[in-house]
Amino acid sequence: MPVMSIIACGMLEDELVYVLSKDREIRQLIVLENRDNSGFLRKLKLKNCTPRTVFLDRVPILLKDWEKSNFRVPAKFLSLFPFFRKMLEKRKWREEKKVTVVVNLLRLGLHSDLELLKAEVYKNIREMAPFSDKILIFYGTCGHTLGKIREDFAALGCPLYFLKDKNGEIIEDCISLSLGGNEAYARAMIEFRGKGTIYLTPMWASSWKRLENEGESRDFNNNFLKNPLYCLAAKIDTGMGNNQEFDENVKDFACTFDMKIRDLKGNMEVAEHSYLAARNSVAEE
């Protein structure tokens, strides 16, 4: 039974919900238990995805039990009905090509300490590799903090996949992902050149108050945001999330920090293509 694990940034839960809810070839979806993923689980359920939730140390047992419980049909019975035997064997072959996906959504606040972020991602790679055929790192390079994962885990024995744009570059961060890649991000920055700009996805717009209050983001604090150099709030519409809620959150942010709102068109292309590349590579083995 092929297993693809995903280690994901909490800020990318909308993109993750999008790709998972569209995938009809998932055999079993498992989400690791933690105190920060209730919103993620709620969004999955709204898309008719109901995953199993389990703590990390229970995943190998769950996978083993799942394998044992499937396709238990007595050989004697099958031999009496050749047609049904062939049908069930074909079904078994199709099911075996489907992928079990194990999602580990890490908390938002890790970005406040990039060394901690790196340590957590690396720790989870090591812990998930033993039961995974491939691991998709659902992060950008995050200021190059995660830029050396590939070489650091060259001897892991479990291939790693990354969020890559159409040029084959690992994306810089969640803003690059939502705009369609590093090149698109660079174009947006050129467009707003000379004007300090804060880029807002639906998740950033809904999370900034919490991050500010908890001191969990270097980017979202009063001293930084009330600097008069920052005058624009770029609203990135990726087509995900509640549009009315997104509008209200962006307006609240812009009003709080006296910024003008500028609209940017985003997309899910990088998230979708990167996810499918990893999932298909697992299924084809």
Task: Report what the structure shows.
By secondary structure, this protein is α/β, with parallel strands linked by helices. It folds into 2 domains: 3-172 and 269-283, Rossmann fold (3-Layer(aba) Sandwich); 180-265, Rossmann fold, CATH 3.40.50. The protein has helices spanning 13-22, 38-46, 59-69, 75-80, 82-97, 114-128, 149-152, 174-179, 182-191, 202-213, 222-225, 243-256, 269-283, and strands spanning 3-9, 26-32, 52-54, 99-106, 134-138, 160-162, 196-200, 230-237, 260-265. The N and C termini lie close together (10 Å). 37% of the residues are buried.
> How many separate helices?
13
Q: Could you say which structural class the secondary elements and strand pairing correspond to?
A: alpha/beta
The level of helicity is: 40-55%
Q: In percent terms, what proportion of residues is strand?
A: 15-25%
CATH fold label of the largest domain: Rossmann fold
Major sheet characteristics:
6 strands, parallel
Q: What's the CATH architecture name of the largest domain?
A: 3-Layer(aba) Sandwich
Show unreliable segments. Answer: 71-76
Q: How is the largest sheet built, in terms of strand order?
A: 3-2-4-1-5-6
C-alpha termini separation = 10 Å
CATH class of the largest domain: Alpha Beta
Number of strands: 9
Please, what is the average pLDDT?
Answer: 86
Overall 3D geometry? globular
Q: Please tell me the total number of domains.
A: 2
- Radius of gyration, CA atoms, in whole angstroms: 21 Å
Return the string of H and E elements: EHEHEHHHEHEHEHHEHHEHEH
